[in-house]
Amino acid sequence: xxxxxxxxxxxxxxxxxxxxxxxxxxxxxxxxxxxxxxxxxxxxxxxxxxxxxxxxxxxxxxxxxxxxxxxxxxxxxxxxxxxxxxxxxxxxxxxxxxxxxxxxxxxxxxxxxxxxxxx
Length: 119
What we know:
Blueprint: H1 5-32, H2 47-83, H3 98-103, H4 111-116
Helix pairs in contact: 1-2
């Protein structure tokens, strides 16, 4: 069983909006990273300033990695909508429970496969 295209149209639009938000967040994080400014390498800042910059960089990197993962999941879900496999488990092919998709629209595993794989 596949979901009808007209049913998935609003979901695809939702994913497109989320994708844009994530891309915007990624751009913002790149500009907020203290290490993005090449001139800071020659600033000879004191240890406290260096520690603060290092913390800011690590925070930006972690948030960037989280954003990249979310972007990957959204794009994967969009691809599944396009190819007609949205709502089916990528491992076993069983339909993913609609409650599960309601909680996480990017879910790619049914509950049984998610439990087996520790996700």
